[in-house]
Each structure stands twice: as structure tokens, then as C-alpha cells.
Amino acid sequence: MKFTIYQDELLELLDTEEVSDYQSEKEKFKEDIRNIRECGIKSIRNGRTIVMEYLFRLFDLDEFEAYLVILSFCSELDHKMQMIYSSLTDHTDSFVPTLNLAIEMYTDDEIVRRRLQAQCIKRWETLAFLFAGFCETSSAIATDIRTGYFEQKLKLDYRILAYLQNIESSDKSLSGIVQYHYPGNTEQELLIHREIAEGLERVSEKSETPCIFFLKGERGAGKKFQALKYCERHRDTLLLIDSKRIPKDAFEKKFLLRRIIREALLQGNAAIGIYDLEAEPDSNKVDWEKVEDLLWGMDYWKGTLFLTSKYEWNQKVQENERCVWKFSIPETTTEERIILWNTLFSQEIAPKDIRLEFLADKYVLSAGSIEKCIRTYINRMLIEDGEGKSQWLLEACREQIDHRLGNDAVRIRAQYTWDDLVL
User: Fold this and answer.
1) Could you tell me where the DSSP H helices lie in 133-287?
2) Whole-angstrom Cα distance, residue 332 to residue 365?
């Protein structure tokens, strides 16, 4: 999309009294944008997607806000547009429009301009998802804006530019922080704790708003797996984030959470899961201050949110307007562990001299821990290049028990055997 006149002609119009021609060009540009949007709306109705129109809908942009995005996008695609923007502003080193320039190009009505300025202030946090620098400007530690807030440059954020070029792209700045789980990628069925899955569904069906779920359970209990299966049932993508990777600095935390929220929106309103919430010092409950910070930082997010921890929910947490639904995943029973061992462990590679029922009864392990035992045993078989031994499997089970006790107790290895006992 470009103007039908170029820089020299536009500047000539501005320097002469041919204002009507300039006005007609502006109106034609706005009409072209309306036609583009109408085509986009029709394409969505017909089951196809025009990426730009889909972006407008994700962030609920009105005609003026869509106009801002298109102006900025034009500057990225057309060098002549860059020259026009540079000539129309006092920023000779800038080749993108400013907020003031965009408003002036949109309307000549002074009252409407004031209304649009007020709208920009009100919607600044939404615009910050789209344009680089807006989030920094609205922060408490923002650098001095000497030219005024409405001289903010309308430069599309790199992630938005990449999305408009390729809808299947992802935010590379979140690499190592966000784990993407797409529907249909997990073949493993939910073998135990199906009552938890049923409870999640009941809440989801009755809730009038997207839910916040808190899942409590020991390491490997299947908290993340429950979230994953829930998203598969709803055909949603799940973005998983380790809580330890979220910065402590207030601005860095806000900036990261906003990027995560934006990525969830761009991934088709994906669910977000933040796992392994830490405990309050000297307590068996989650750190209420950190959880509150997370909830406030996620305030813009109105989609499904999962929080998980091995610690209890802290009643000090102010849940704000959204209710947090709490679920506790219990310790596995012997019967459940028998099901897990028999389903996950192939009889072809299992040691011949050990019964899986014995392992299920002797070692109280979670589903995740049993999977790790099996992987450790298989790896040992590959290293030794021989038939599996029951000793290797027992050692793997004991390692998981040791790891489980690591946070709460220290295992003391006995120095004596039964032969040393004197009666």
C-alpha cells in the first residue's frame, strides 16, 4: 500500500494552496485502507485468513488503530514512504511516522484529533504490543521523552513485523524461556488421575470467563501433563514457562510477561502455564508476593492460565477479579503404579527376574519418576549393550527416591549389614 503521489509532489502540495488535492489524497488513502479491511473481513468469513486483518482482531483494533499499523507497515515495505514520513516531520533521522503525524494525516478536525490523542493514551498498553518503545515509555523508569509522548515513533515491533510476513513464526527472544506444545503432538494418554481432568472440564464448562487453574502435586505428579491434555482436548496451544526464568527486576518482569502474553495471542489465543512456583521462606505454601506479582503482570491476559507447584496455595494471595481454581494431585496408589509400570514399560526389555508389581508396591513413585526410571534403565542397556538386569532397574528406582528426599531429608547409607547383627 502506498500513496498515489510521491515525496516531491506531496511536499509541493503542502507548500502551495492546493490543500484540497492533498485532502483528497488523504481520503483516498483512508478509503484504500477501508477496502483492504473489508477484503480481510470477507476472507475470514469465507474461512481464509488475511494475516493483517487477523492481527487487528486479535488486539481488537478499531479503524484508527489499524490505520496506525498500516502506516508503520508501509514504511517498512516502501522506501518512498520512508522519505515522505521523514520530510513531513522534524525528525530528519527518522523514516517512520510519529503518532502526531499519523493523527494529522487521519483527520483535520481538531476536536477529533484531541479525541484520538486521548484514545492513544487510554490504549497505550495495547499499542505497546504492536510498536517498539511504547512499553518502555509507559514504565516508571522510562527515559525522558523530550519531544513529547505524541512524537513517539510508530515503528512496528520486530515480532509483529515477522508475524505479518509469516504467520507461523515465533518470538525468537523467548527461546529458552517458552516451551511450545501444539495440539496433537502428545500421543500418551492420561492413565491415572482422570478425576482431575474431569474436574478441570467441569469448571471450564461452567465458568463464564477463561479460567486460572492452580495444580499442586509432588515432582512428576503430572501437573504439566494435565495442563497439556486439557489444551489438547480444547485444541489449544500451550506455552510453558519455568517460574525461575522470570526476572525479579520489576521492569524486566513486566516486559517479559507482556511478550509472553503477546505470543500467546499470536499463537491463536494459546493457554499459558507457569510451573514450579517457589515457596515462601520457611513455609510449605507458595510465595504469595511473587504469585501476586505474576497475576498483576498477567492482568491483560484474559485466556486460560495454569499455575503449578509442589507447595500449597497461599491464602494471602489477592486473586483480584478472576477466581483461581485449586486442584491437588494426590500421591499414586499401588494400583495406579501397577498400571503405570505395565503400560509404560515394555515387557520385551523388562528384566525376567523381577515382577513389576513388586516395584509398584516397594517404591512409591510418581508417574514422572517411573518414566525416568524406565529411561535410565533403557539408557543403561544401550551403554552396556546387553540384556537388562534387575539391578539396574532397582538402582534407577532408588535414585528417584533419593532425589525425592533431597529437599526434605538426607539418606544415610548403613555401614553395617545383617551379618553384623549380634543377638
Assistant:
1) 134-138, 158-165, 194-206, 223-233, 250-266
2) 7
